[in-house]
Amino acid sequence: MYKNLLGALAVAGLWLDGVAARRRLSCRDDLNTFITKQNDISLKGVLANIGPDGSKAQGAAAGAVVASPSKSDPDYWYTWSRDSALTFKVLVELFIGGNKSLQPKIEQYITAQAHLQGVINPSGGPDSGGLGEPKFHVDLTAFTGSWGRPQRDGPPLRATALTIYANWLIANGGTSEATNTVWPIIAKDLAYTVQYWNRTGFDLWEEVNGSSFFTLSASYRALVEGAALAKALNKQCPDCETNAPRVLCFLQSFWANGYVDSNINVNDGRVGKDVNSIISSIHTFDPAAACTDATFQPCSSRALANHKAVVDSFRTIYTVNKGRTAGKAAAVGRYSEDVYYNGNPWYLATMAAAEQMYAAVYQWQKIGSIKVDAMSLPFFRDLVPSIATGTYAKNSDTFTSVIKAVTAYGDDFINVVKQYTPADGSMAEQFDRETGAPKSAVHLTWSYASFVGAIERRSGVVPPSWGEPTSNTVPAVCEAPPSCDSTMTFNVKVTTVPGESIFVVGSITELKNWSPADAIPLDASQYTSSNPLWTAKIKLPAATNFDYKYIKKTNDGTVIWESDPNRSATSSTGCNSSGTLNDQWR
Ligand code: NOJ
Ligand code: NOJ
């Protein structure tokens, strides 16, 4: 009897196990079905947004990637250098992976970028910082409205997309195309990166003017692989090799006690946990790398601890994450303090969280072991509660359970995306933090590209190495690049009376960021009534675009500004160069 009861219980248990297994299996089947379908929709979604013949990009130039067909609320009918380069990185990888139909698109992108590099815009001209302009009209003309500029991630991101392609050309009989068509574009992007990486600029979200982890990560990768490409093509990449280790050194300073502080050198009032850092880790993922902390590889202890910190920061603030406690995937946004459209989860951010997991799994399989240390232990504990620090070899049970749990964790982020993607597979930019309904720009190219990119990793398709294994040593002392200054003479003719003085103030640090209290005084020693000249020599970074105005201060502290609009100018090109601005007060 007793025996029978046990037996019956055992049978019932087995039966229950079977149900659970079948349920698990059917969940995974569901997910796989979704992924197959959504991947196809996403690739088509990307192509529909590329001119000239994309169905949603009518009127866009050949090779121009439209960010979204949305023309109002928000107006994304522009081509951003960042979105375009990240999208083409995915397309180039797919092309190399066998989708040869993408080659004409890649060629059109190359032609479009060669043209864009020459377009004079509010960030400057081709040699004076213009490559840092974030976005252009879809017909490839300059956008001149006010915007968070410059953004210095565009050039290195484009260099990377094109370098992957150039290396493929070299390996496939296309060395002359690589040399004559692709390299000249890459060379300009690398020259920009060399010259400007140590300057502040706007982050990838176009909001914060400082030093962005993402921009510096992209710069590092581009310089390393760019220097190697130059060698392969017998070309020069001036100062790429000297600057790369400096960038790597600087990148270390974003590590803030257990996570990456995504924006530094700026007082942004944020904790710094931002999916910026996760997108960086997947961008600099190198399939040949170990789990290197210095380069924040997806499987590194730092990047895993950071993944947990960033994902956890969204768990309690979004209603859609109710019940999604640590260890379960969650909807991920840009950063917790975000207020854009009220601050919501983004598809591309949630996909990035998935992609890091797949990339890490790839690395552990390749390396053949998993190391759990004090820094990464909390990440692993969420997924495998019994785990302890140690190194687990491929044949161990712990290795197997971690691989299984991390893969399932990655899949679970895709389940979140699945839950909030409409039945027709269209992907907007965001989904509502409370209702999960799609929000902001419709058919966002970057959302679609992020889906395709993550699914590539999930299926074990990886890009070529960018050279991380031989470029991951951090210099003992961080070195700044030598400064490259221009001395600009500001001459303004303005009639003044005793007690009045003239100052200049403007949009860059050297011109005191528009702070009238800190404005730079001009000198009146050459002033005569027939030549009322006020003058100052000011050191500015060379080849830099800036806005400025003169102001008049009176003895009683009154400040009188020149009339609108702001003046704009570019400092002279070349280190130790000089230039003169001759102005008339207005
Ligand atoms: C538009 C930018 O693209 C977006 O990232 C930003 O949050 C908003 N402007 C608000 O500054
Ligand atoms: C706003 C995002 O913050 C920015 O990263 C992106 O480049 C633009 N939208 C266009 O998609």
From TrEMBL:
Record: active site: 203, 206
Disordered as annotated region, ranges: 561-586
EC number(s) given by UniProt: 3.2.1.3
Top-level taxon of the source organism: Eukaryota
Biased composition (Polar residues): 566-586
GO cellular component: fungal-type vacuole
Domain CBM20: 480-586
KW Ubl conjugation (keyword) present: no
Signal peptide residue numbers: 1-21
InterPro entries for this protein: 6-hairpin_glycosidase_sf, 6hp_glycosidase-like_sf, Carb-bd-like_fold, CBM20, CBM20_glucoamylase, GH15-like, Glucoamylase, Glucoamylase_active_site
Pfam families: CBM_20, Glyco_hydro_15
UniProt: substrate binding residues: 147
Key words, A-Z: Carbohydrate metabolism, Glycoprotein, Glycosidase, Hydrolase, Polysaccharide degradation, Signal
This protein's record includes keyword Signal: yes
Coiled-coil segments on the chain, per record: none
Entry similarity comment: Belongs to the glycosyl hydrolase 15 family.
Protein name in the entry: Glucoamylase
Organism for this UniProt entry: Pochonia chlamydosporia 170
